[in-house]
User: Fold this.
Amino acid sequence: MIATRHFSRRCSTSAKLHFGVLAALAGVLFALPFSTHARTQTCFVVSIHSGDTLTARCGDAASANAWRRVRLQGIEAPKPGQPFAEQAQQKMHDMVRLKPADVDCDDPTSHARERICRVMVTPDSAPNGPRTLDASLALLTVGLARWKPAQAQRLSPQERGQYEFAEEEAKAKRAGLWKDARPVHP
Assistant:
């Protein structure tokens, strides 16, 4: 009787340990698609090309790899000449130009000169605070960009929901490009 109790305690402890290890592995595997190939660098935004494209200097300015053309992940802003293109570019300029930014990029694609990245800057409301303002999300919120899920594979499900919600809310408020009855697709 005593041997049976001791054996069942050992099995339950062993089973708990195995379950814990499996749960930890599942957590790591679940997180991998959202964190692989990330390269976060502190950069300085030097120019804005459009509502969703900028140039940043990362690291040593003398290095050939220091200058990086960046396209914001998860969004598409109006192209030059389209309605709201100037407003999107101006918003981007006001938000990120000549500021330090945390730039988190995917590995280069076939277009090595332009990389899809998440750009985080310090909000104007807290100039001495951390870089918590997601430039893509900010443009979606004011209706100056469209949500583009195909460019946001590395976002977590929660972040994807935030981007989608921001666009839906901008549509409901008829903000930015959603003022038009038939907004032009960038």
In short: DSSP finds four helices and eight strands in the chain. The mean pLDDT is 81. Residues 1-36 form one domain. Residues 2-35 form the longest helix (34 residues).
